[in-house]
Amino acid sequence: MKSHEVDYKIMGHDIQFVEIELDPDETVIAEAGAMMYMKEGIEFKTKMGDGSEPDKGLFGKLLSAASRKITGESIFITHFTHRGMGKSHVAFAAPYPGTIVPANLGKLGGTVIVQRDAFLCAALGTKISMHFNRKLGAGFFGGEGFILQKLQGDGMVFIHAGGTLMEHELNGETLRVDTGCVVGFQEGINFDIERAGNLKSMVFGGEGLFLATLSGHGKVWLQSMPIRKLIDQLSPGSNNSRKESSGGLLNSLLES
């Protein structure tokens, strides 16, 4: 199914939202609860599926809903359609402070792989499915787990990144990143993990036990403030508890 062509404006700085402009009968799909406001003529329906395969039967819709449940997302997706005359608008807000990334799938090879909570909204025709990381190391220690989301199509999708966004183009080199800072990457990028240096660096370096490695050719998107780090900083005594647990771990290793 060819994606609907939508125009958009991204507004704000630290906490952004995207306003989508729809012509009559154009539709945008979004995560349940992401809508900020909608203007006259917009009709919305909550459906079990992204609408990219309209002929898919009940069994196919149930499989799609089950896959979204596994990724930790709602099994329902909200469809917003302009049923009036002229142009109208609907806006979607990011779930926490950060940056909204517009991505044209048609110019990115048709597929982008993102972390589980990164998808915000997209033009109707975009297929949202599970993506299994086939490398067990990246699955267990890669920050976002074994299951990611795959976005496929030829239209616009909007991804949310925590804090400030960095887009990086890999040309055969390897980029080492904090595991939680990976937002997404083009299909064909190799995503794996490696140890964060020696034992002392792993325990006291503050960078975690593992780093994510991204290699190959294509775009990757990184975030400066993943939600995990934000929650850690807002939790009272979190830094002290981490230091104490790291010290205890090192003592146990040295005594054994």
What distinguishing features does this structure have?
6-stranded antiparallel sheet, 5 helices, 7-stranded antiparallel sheet, single chain, globular, Double-stranded beta-helix, alpha+beta, 20% helix, 256 residues
Characterize the largest beta sheet: strand count, sense, and whether it forms a barrel: 7 strands, antiparallel
Q: So how many helices?
A: 5
- Which stretches are poorly predicted, pLDDT < 50 over at least 5 residues? 136-145, 200-206, 240-247
What is the architecture at the second tier of CATH?
Answer: 4-Layer Sandwich
**Tertiary shape:** globular
Mean pLDDT: 79
Helix content: 10-25%
**How far apart, in Å, are the first and last alpha carbons?**
60 Å
**CATH class, anyone?**
Alpha Beta
CATH homology superfamily name: Mitochondrial biogenesis AIM24
How many strands appear in the DSSP assignment?
17
At the fold tier of CATH, the topology name is Double-stranded beta-helix
SSE order: EEEEEHEEEEEEHEEEEEHEHH
Strand content: 35-45%
